Amino acid sequence: MAVSLAACGSAGQAGGSDASEPAEKKGDDLTIGLLLPENQTARYEKFDKPLIEKKISELTNNKAKVVYANAKQDATLQTQQVETMITNKVDALIVDAVDAKAIAGSVKKAKDAGIPVVAFDRLAEGPIDAYTSFDNEEVGRVQGKALLEALGDKAEGGQIVMMNGAVTDPNAALFKKGAHSELDGKVTVGKEYDTKEWKPENANANMEASISALGKDKIVGVYSANDGMAGGIITALKAAGVSPLPPVTGQDAELAGVQRIVAGEQFMSVYKPYAPEAATAAEMAVALARGESLDAIAKAKVDSPTTKGVPSVLVPVVSLTKDNIQDTVIKDGVYTVQEICTPKFKAACDELGLK
Fold first, then answer.
1. Predicted TM-score of the model (pTM)
2. Distance from the CA of 213 to the CA of which of 81, 135, 176, 206 falls in 20 to 30 A?
């Protein structure tokens, strides 16, 4: 499960392995703060929140309380939410940062107040005590490989559009780096964007601009860093009369993305098993709140730009295409066949044998 990773980072505060430890070890009567970054991406409210809450409850004999707040993509609001959690003296914080750099001051305030912080899904800066996410460069590599496979002979001499995520998200830079490591030298990148706030409407506008600049028949594929943006991209391609649609990548295995894969509109997504990531965050937070070591949980170490040697767990990812929907999101109980195969998609589902 854990993958050894040494991310590039300057020598900063070496607080990662030096966990904030309460004066007395605590039992099950804990309060854990959970701060998630936004509610536009379905995963946070549908999967991460309930999975983390359930695991924390299991680990504490149903005695711990989870205090939840969603920043709705507003870094300033998230700063205020951290301040509130500190004022309310939570025993530990799980934070998925809207802006990894902007959160650093708040993380330090929590640390100064004796509240350990687990960076969830994104590597927040500041003196964090633990980190769990997916191997984010591998996500980009998986996307890049899949796009090249879909393109086949069209890659040589063809040009693609790259729609990366938001610059405020350190994961977006890792996805981009991984994708470029696969795509560079094998296909021409005609246009490339860092998409503000990951918003589908921004990806849609960027795609419209790409089509105008490059010509609708000159784009052989689109690298989209996630499923939400893929939806905006595909809408722009359809509106421009592009047919057949070029292969478009994605990430997060959102229901709409899986349905587009079934329908043949989106080529792939990256399925990230949320349960092990959420469970690890819960285990880290409870252990840190109790003043316990993370040695049994985190076997890897990661460096952020400000903190060296952060105990970390990185969860593997899977390339999701129409060929393995049954063996991934359906088998793992993320979606039922009924949820995916609504009347609009029934014929396509029947073709794939999803019943």
1. 0.80
2. 176
